Amino acid sequence: MTFDNQHILKTGLSSEAIMRALFENYESIYDIDAETSAYQCYHESNLYSELGIKSSGEDFFAVLSSNIPKIIYPEDQPYVRKMLFRETMLRVLKKDRYYSFVYRLMLGGKPVYHKVRATLETVNGRRHILLGVRNVDETIRQEKAHTEAIVSMYQKEKNHMEAILASAEGYIEVNLTRDRVLEMSPNPVSASGSPVIEVPFLGYPLLYSVLNRWIMENRIVENRERYEKVSDREFLITGFTQGEKRASVYFSSRRKDGGVQPCREVFYLYQDNPSGDIMALCVIYDLTEQQRKEKELQELESKLQMSRIRNSTSQMQPHFLYNALGSIQEIVLTDPEYASRLIGDFTTHMRSCVRAMSSDALIPFEQELSNIKAYVNIEKMRFGDKLNVVYDVEASDFMILPLSIQPLVENAIRHGIYERGAKGGTVTVRSREYEDRWVVEVEDDGVGFDVAAFQEMIETGKKDSTGLKNLIFRLDTVMKADVEVQSTVGSGTRVTVSIPKGEVCE
After folding, report:
1. pLDDT tens-digit readout, 430-475
2. Helix, strand or coil for residue 423?
3. Can you tell me the distance from the alpha carbon of 429 to that of 431, in angstroms, rounded to the nearest whole number?
4. What CATH topology corresponds to 360-506?
5. Distance from the CA of 417 to the CA of which of 14, 106, 245, 457 falls in 20 to 30 A?
6. In the CATH scheme, what architecture does the domain 163-293 have?
7. Burial class (CB within 10 angstroms; exposed 0-12, middle 13-18, buried 19+) of 445
8. pTM surpassing 0.90?
């Protein structure tokens, strides 16, 4: 794709070279006339061009239909035909802003995951379908690998629990009615391989109440009060007569070497048929391994969530690209120098999006500020004097997540200032250093909103705040940062990011 193959910028860069830089994250970008289906390919990667799809034509959907058997993974062909049916796409786009799906393309003899994302825009009175194709193979395969790992972890956890049930660390068989210990393992509250404290001879016949008292005084370290209540024979007898079949309690047990191990004791209650006595099989489980696996599972789920967030954080929206580049195209002939600066800003913004998608490695705040300024310059091209941005920066010598403050500035412009129409407004970016933290604020004097009502709409599913929730999650997980949103209808909004010093998670 080129803006106009007859024009070369004073910088010496051809528009084709500029587009390759801007669209390096896309395989192709199409502009389709919604009424006639005529299309123009505005960008095509070298790899995608090898597929032999014509860059322009009279009927995008007919060309696509004829090429599906050649380029789409066989199992996905019916699905792709269904999803790229013109009427289906238009019906969905009239209702929803975006239309997207994932499929597999045959490249080099193997299936490679790609994502189609389309939106419907009106340009010069005509409706256009803007459709972008991205290679998401690495992201999808990573997500699948993480999901499979989680499924495997759940299965291992299930197997682990079955193994614990099959081979408990200790047990005590008790006649609760007669207060008698009938049988017990040599060390009923020990863990395999752990230094143990031997249970002394406590008399014969051994009374359950006596053994239980010794265990509480010599072995229970944490949750002793609860253990005393649940293990009491009268409590267990009462529970059984009320229909309970078992009771359980978590506690920590002391080891001979001074260490502490987490345990769970389950009291399986039943009645002896011949005598009618109420019995209990008290089984003790060591939870050390279970807790380790639960922590490992939580970490794995967190990594999966971060992977999804990275993928969604830096989505490069086709309609934004189309509008911004269309505006730059108009400026190229009248003011080439200004157009050159804008293209530089656009490239800076796009590269920051790509970088944020692949990594959460921290960057200097000054770099994030440069990304913000590049984005603001693009928006000022479109909004003109309606948009004023003030940088009140007193602290910049700290690190921050990439693309963490820029989305707040974007929200302030699009949902605060733009909604004021011709009045326009001001967005202020502040940064301050305090003794224990850095604070960054993004404030606008736009239309504002009712925070409580907005939160209620999110909870009821009437509003989607995925972007803000993902941003808050990233800042909290990686930097232990707090995000506070304050807004007043008609006055504006302020978002405050508070970053504690020395809390970054490596």
Report:
1. 999 999 999 999 999 988 888 888 777 766 666 666 667 777 877 8
2. helix
3. 7
4. Heat Shock Protein 90 (3.30.565)
5. 457
6. 2-Layer Sandwich (3.30)
7. buried
8. no
